[in-house]
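Exercise 3.2. Students should predict the tertiary structure of the chain below and write it as C-alpha coordinates, then compare their answer with the key that follows.

Predict this chain's 3D structure.
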Amino acid sequence: MGFSGSLPATRAAVPYLGAVTVGLGRACVAGLLALLVLSWKRSPLPSLRQSLGLVQVALGVVVGFPLLSAYALERVPASHAALVVGLTPLLTAGWAVLRAGERVSVRFWAASGSATLVVLGFCLHSGEGRLSAADAWLLLGALVCAYGYAEGARLSRELGGFRVIAWALVIAWLPLCAVVARAGLPDLESVPLSAWLGFGYVSVVSMFLAFVVWYAGLAGAGIARASQLQLLQPLFSMALASWLLHESLPQGIWIAMAALIPLIVAANRSRGAVSARP
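Answer key:
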Protein backbone atom coordinates (compact mmCIF):
# COMPACT_ATOMS: atom_id res chain seq x y z
CA MET A 1 0.00 0.00 0.00
CA GLY A 2 2.85 2.39 0.76
CA PHE A 3 4.05 2.39 -2.85
CA SER A 4 0.51 2.94 -4.20
CA GLY A 5 0.66 6.61 -3.30
CA SER A 6 4.02 7.21 -4.97
CA LEU A 7 2.81 8.12 -8.45
CA PRO A 8 -0.10 10.34 -7.34
CA ALA A 9 2.19 12.09 -4.85
CA THR A 10 4.85 12.61 -7.51
CA ARG A 11 2.26 13.95 -9.93
CA ALA A 12 1.09 16.44 -7.28
CA ALA A 13 4.61 17.73 -6.66
CA VAL A 14 6.30 17.68 -10.09
CA PRO A 15 4.52 20.67 -11.71
CA TYR A 16 5.75 22.96 -8.93
CA LEU A 17 9.08 21.48 -7.80
CA GLY A 18 10.35 19.92 -11.04
CA ALA A 19 11.32 16.38 -11.97
CA VAL A 20 14.89 16.53 -10.62
CA THR A 21 13.89 17.92 -7.23
CA VAL A 22 11.04 15.45 -6.80
CA GLY A 23 12.81 12.49 -8.40
CA LEU A 24 16.16 12.84 -6.65
CA GLY A 25 15.40 15.23 -3.80
CA ARG A 26 13.30 12.59 -2.09
CA ALA A 27 16.48 10.55 -1.58
CA CYS A 28 18.17 13.55 0.05
CA VAL A 29 15.46 13.66 2.70
CA ALA A 30 15.21 9.89 3.08
CA GLY A 31 19.01 9.55 3.15
CA LEU A 32 19.25 11.95 6.07
CA LEU A 33 16.63 9.96 7.96
CA ALA A 34 18.45 6.73 7.14
CA LEU A 35 21.77 8.13 8.34
CA LEU A 36 20.24 9.25 11.64
CA VAL A 37 18.63 5.86 12.28
CA LEU A 38 21.77 3.94 11.28
CA SER A 39 23.81 6.06 13.69
CA TRP A 40 21.27 5.61 16.48
CA LYS A 41 21.21 1.83 15.98
CA ARG A 42 25.01 1.73 15.56
CA SER A 43 24.52 -0.41 12.50
CA PRO A 44 27.74 -2.06 11.28
CA LEU A 45 29.15 -1.07 7.91
CA PRO A 46 28.39 -3.39 4.99
CA SER A 47 31.25 -5.36 3.47
CA LEU A 48 32.83 -4.34 0.18
CA ARG A 49 30.90 -7.06 -1.66
CA GLN A 50 27.66 -5.95 -0.07
CA SER A 51 28.45 -2.31 -0.82
CA LEU A 52 28.79 -3.10 -4.52
CA GLY A 53 25.34 -4.66 -4.42
CA LEU A 54 23.99 -1.64 -2.54
CA VAL A 55 25.28 0.65 -5.30
CA GLN A 56 23.23 -1.38 -7.78
CA VAL A 57 20.18 -1.10 -5.53
CA ALA A 58 20.67 2.67 -5.35
CA LEU A 59 20.96 2.99 -9.13
CA GLY A 60 17.68 1.13 -9.55
CA VAL A 61 15.34 2.33 -6.82
CA VAL A 62 16.97 5.49 -5.45
CA VAL A 63 18.01 7.11 -8.74
CA GLY A 64 16.58 5.33 -11.79
CA PHE A 65 12.90 4.80 -11.14
CA PRO A 66 12.23 7.98 -9.12
CA LEU A 67 13.83 10.23 -11.74
CA LEU A 68 12.38 8.48 -14.80
CA SER A 69 8.88 8.35 -13.34
CA ALA A 70 9.09 12.02 -12.34
CA TYR A 71 9.99 12.99 -15.92
CA ALA A 72 7.11 10.87 -17.23
CA LEU A 73 4.62 12.35 -14.77
CA GLU A 74 5.31 15.80 -16.14
CA ARG A 75 3.50 14.55 -19.25
CA VAL A 76 0.98 11.85 -18.31
CA PRO A 77 -1.56 11.43 -15.49
CA ALA A 78 -0.71 9.28 -12.48
CA SER A 79 -3.50 6.86 -13.39
CA HIS A 80 -1.90 6.22 -16.80
CA ALA A 81 1.55 5.77 -15.27
CA ALA A 82 0.18 3.40 -12.65
CA LEU A 83 -0.90 0.84 -15.22
CA VAL A 84 2.33 1.09 -17.22
CA VAL A 85 4.52 0.38 -14.20
CA GLY A 86 2.28 -2.60 -13.54
CA LEU A 87 4.93 -4.47 -15.54
CA THR A 88 7.29 -4.25 -12.57
CA PRO A 89 6.21 -7.55 -10.92
CA LEU A 90 6.97 -9.60 -14.04
CA LEU A 91 10.31 -7.86 -14.48
CA THR A 92 11.11 -8.45 -10.82
CA ALA A 93 10.40 -12.14 -11.25
CA GLY A 94 12.76 -12.22 -14.22
CA TRP A 95 15.54 -10.56 -12.24
CA ALA A 96 14.85 -12.98 -9.37
CA VAL A 97 15.64 -15.87 -11.69
CA LEU A 98 18.79 -14.21 -13.03
CA ARG A 99 20.15 -12.67 -9.82
CA ALA A 100 18.80 -14.79 -6.96
CA GLY A 101 18.59 -18.20 -8.62
CA GLU A 102 14.85 -18.65 -8.10
CA ARG A 103 12.88 -21.16 -10.14
CA VAL A 104 9.53 -20.15 -11.58
CA SER A 105 6.86 -22.43 -13.06
CA VAL A 106 5.62 -22.23 -16.64
CA ARG A 107 2.13 -21.42 -15.33
CA PHE A 108 3.55 -18.48 -13.40
CA TRP A 109 5.28 -17.10 -16.49
CA ALA A 110 2.15 -17.59 -18.59
CA ALA A 111 0.01 -15.59 -16.18
CA SER A 112 2.55 -12.82 -15.65
CA GLY A 113 3.42 -12.68 -19.35
CA SER A 114 -0.25 -12.31 -20.25
CA ALA A 115 -0.53 -9.47 -17.74
CA THR A 116 2.40 -7.80 -19.46
CA LEU A 117 0.64 -7.99 -22.82
CA VAL A 118 -2.43 -6.38 -21.29
CA VAL A 119 -0.35 -3.47 -20.01
CA LEU A 120 1.45 -3.02 -23.33
CA GLY A 121 -1.86 -3.16 -25.16
CA PHE A 122 -3.19 -0.41 -22.94
CA CYS A 123 -0.13 1.76 -23.64
CA LEU A 124 -0.46 1.29 -27.39
CA HIS A 125 -4.19 2.02 -27.27
CA SER A 126 -3.62 5.20 -25.26
CA GLY A 127 -0.85 6.30 -27.61
CA GLU A 128 -2.86 5.62 -30.78
CA GLY A 129 -0.71 2.69 -31.79
CA ARG A 130 2.68 3.88 -30.57
CA LEU A 131 4.52 4.28 -27.30
CA SER A 132 4.97 7.85 -26.12
CA ALA A 133 8.22 9.17 -24.65
CA ALA A 134 6.57 9.12 -21.23
CA ASP A 135 5.66 5.46 -21.69
CA ALA A 136 9.25 4.68 -22.68
CA TRP A 137 10.55 6.38 -19.53
CA LEU A 138 8.05 4.49 -17.41
CA LEU A 139 8.94 1.15 -18.99
CA LEU A 140 12.66 1.80 -18.50
CA GLY A 141 11.91 2.91 -14.95
CA ALA A 142 10.02 -0.31 -14.30
CA LEU A 143 12.99 -2.33 -15.60
CA VAL A 144 15.57 -0.66 -13.36
CA CYS A 145 13.17 -0.60 -10.42
CA ALA A 146 12.60 -4.34 -10.74
CA TYR A 147 16.36 -4.89 -10.75
CA GLY A 148 16.66 -2.82 -7.59
CA TYR A 149 13.88 -4.83 -5.98
CA ALA A 150 15.50 -8.17 -6.79
CA GLU A 151 19.01 -7.11 -5.81
CA GLY A 152 17.78 -5.47 -2.62
CA ALA A 153 15.77 -8.53 -1.64
CA ARG A 154 18.80 -10.74 -2.25
CA LEU A 155 20.92 -8.53 0.02
CA SER A 156 18.12 -8.42 2.61
CA ARG A 157 18.78 -12.09 3.32
CA GLU A 158 22.13 -10.97 4.71
CA LEU A 159 21.52 -7.42 5.94
CA GLY A 160 17.80 -7.18 6.60
CA GLY A 161 15.36 -4.91 4.76
CA PHE A 162 16.10 -1.80 6.83
CA ARG A 163 19.87 -1.89 6.41
CA VAL A 164 19.61 -2.47 2.66
CA ILE A 165 17.51 0.59 1.84
CA ALA A 166 19.20 2.69 4.53
CA TRP A 167 22.75 2.03 3.29
CA ALA A 168 21.67 2.39 -0.36
CA LEU A 169 20.30 5.83 0.49
CA VAL A 170 23.41 6.84 2.43
CA ILE A 171 25.71 5.73 -0.41
CA ALA A 172 23.79 7.86 -2.91
CA TRP A 173 23.14 10.79 -0.56
CA LEU A 174 26.01 13.22 -1.24
CA PRO A 175 26.03 12.88 -5.06
CA LEU A 176 22.26 13.30 -5.27
CA CYS A 177 22.23 16.30 -2.94
CA ALA A 178 24.85 17.92 -5.19
CA VAL A 179 22.74 17.27 -8.31
CA VAL A 180 19.59 18.66 -6.70
CA ALA A 181 21.42 21.74 -5.43
CA ARG A 182 22.86 22.37 -8.88
CA ALA A 183 19.43 22.02 -10.49
CA GLY A 184 18.11 24.79 -8.27
CA LEU A 185 14.74 25.23 -6.60
CA PRO A 186 11.68 27.10 -7.88
CA ASP A 187 10.12 30.07 -6.12
CA LEU A 188 9.14 28.33 -2.88
CA GLU A 189 6.40 30.85 -2.14
CA SER A 190 4.52 29.68 -5.23
CA VAL A 191 4.57 26.00 -4.22
CA PRO A 192 1.19 24.93 -2.78
CA LEU A 193 0.77 22.75 0.28
CA SER A 194 -0.39 19.82 -1.86
CA ALA A 195 2.99 19.74 -3.63
CA TRP A 196 4.89 19.75 -0.34
CA LEU A 197 2.68 16.97 1.00
CA GLY A 198 3.35 14.94 -2.14
CA PHE A 199 7.08 15.51 -1.84
CA GLY A 200 6.99 14.61 1.84
CA TYR A 201 5.15 11.38 1.07
CA VAL A 202 7.59 10.16 -1.57
CA SER A 203 10.53 11.15 0.65
CA VAL A 204 9.48 9.46 3.88
CA VAL A 205 7.05 6.70 2.88
CA SER A 206 7.88 5.73 -0.71
CA MET A 207 11.65 6.14 -0.45
CA PHE A 208 12.21 4.76 3.03
CA LEU A 209 9.49 3.24 5.22
CA ALA A 210 7.75 1.22 2.50
CA PHE A 211 11.07 -0.22 1.34
CA VAL A 212 11.94 -1.56 4.80
CA VAL A 213 8.81 -3.71 4.81
CA TRP A 214 8.97 -4.53 1.10
CA TYR A 215 12.51 -5.88 1.10
CA ALA A 216 11.83 -7.96 4.20
CA GLY A 217 8.75 -9.44 2.53
CA LEU A 218 10.54 -10.21 -0.74
CA ALA A 219 13.43 -11.88 1.07
CA GLY A 220 11.14 -13.95 3.30
CA ALA A 221 8.45 -15.08 0.86
CA GLY A 222 10.54 -15.38 -2.30
CA ILE A 223 11.22 -12.52 -4.69
CA ALA A 224 9.26 -13.77 -7.70
CA ARG A 225 6.26 -14.85 -5.67
CA ALA A 226 5.95 -11.86 -3.34
CA SER A 227 6.54 -9.35 -6.14
CA GLN A 228 3.28 -10.39 -7.81
CA LEU A 229 1.36 -8.67 -5.02
CA GLN A 230 2.32 -5.43 -6.76
CA LEU A 231 0.04 -6.33 -9.64
CA LEU A 232 -2.67 -4.89 -7.39
CA GLN A 233 -0.82 -1.59 -6.99
CA PRO A 234 -2.18 0.06 -10.17
CA LEU A 235 -5.73 -0.27 -8.89
CA PHE A 236 -4.92 1.48 -5.61
CA SER A 237 -2.83 4.12 -7.38
CA MET A 238 -5.62 4.91 -9.83
CA ALA A 239 -8.14 5.18 -7.01
CA LEU A 240 -5.86 7.62 -5.17
CA ALA A 241 -5.23 9.63 -8.34
CA SER A 242 -8.96 9.93 -8.96
CA TRP A 243 -9.71 10.83 -5.33
CA LEU A 244 -6.82 13.16 -4.52
CA LEU A 245 -5.97 14.64 -7.92
CA HIS A 246 -9.46 14.43 -9.48
CA GLU A 247 -8.01 12.71 -12.54
CA SER A 248 -10.32 11.33 -15.18
CA LEU A 249 -9.32 7.74 -15.69
CA PRO A 250 -7.98 6.95 -19.19
CA GLN A 251 -10.30 5.32 -21.70
CA GLY A 252 -10.08 1.55 -21.55
CA ILE A 253 -8.41 1.44 -18.16
CA TRP A 254 -11.20 -0.54 -16.53
CA ILE A 255 -11.16 -3.07 -19.37
CA ALA A 256 -7.44 -3.49 -18.79
CA MET A 257 -7.95 -3.89 -15.05
CA ALA A 258 -10.73 -6.43 -15.60
CA ALA A 259 -8.32 -8.45 -17.73
CA LEU A 260 -5.53 -8.10 -15.16
CA ILE A 261 -7.42 -9.31 -12.09
CA PRO A 262 -7.83 -12.98 -13.15
CA LEU A 263 -4.21 -13.01 -14.27
CA ILE A 264 -3.16 -11.76 -10.84
CA VAL A 265 -5.13 -14.59 -9.25
CA ALA A 266 -3.56 -17.14 -11.61
CA ALA A 267 -0.03 -15.88 -10.91
CA ASN A 268 -0.53 -16.11 -7.17
CA ARG A 269 -2.11 -19.57 -7.38
CA SER A 270 1.07 -20.77 -9.06
CA ARG A 271 3.23 -19.47 -6.20
CA GLY A 272 3.77 -22.92 -4.77
CA ALA A 273 5.89 -23.67 -7.83
CA VAL A 274 8.31 -20.81 -7.10
CA SER A 275 11.46 -21.88 -5.30
CA ALA A 276 15.11 -21.07 -4.95
CA ARG A 277 17.81 -23.16 -6.54
CA PRO A 278 19.91 -25.08 -4.07
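Discussion points: The two ends are 32 Å apart (CA to CA). The longest helix spans residues 193-221.
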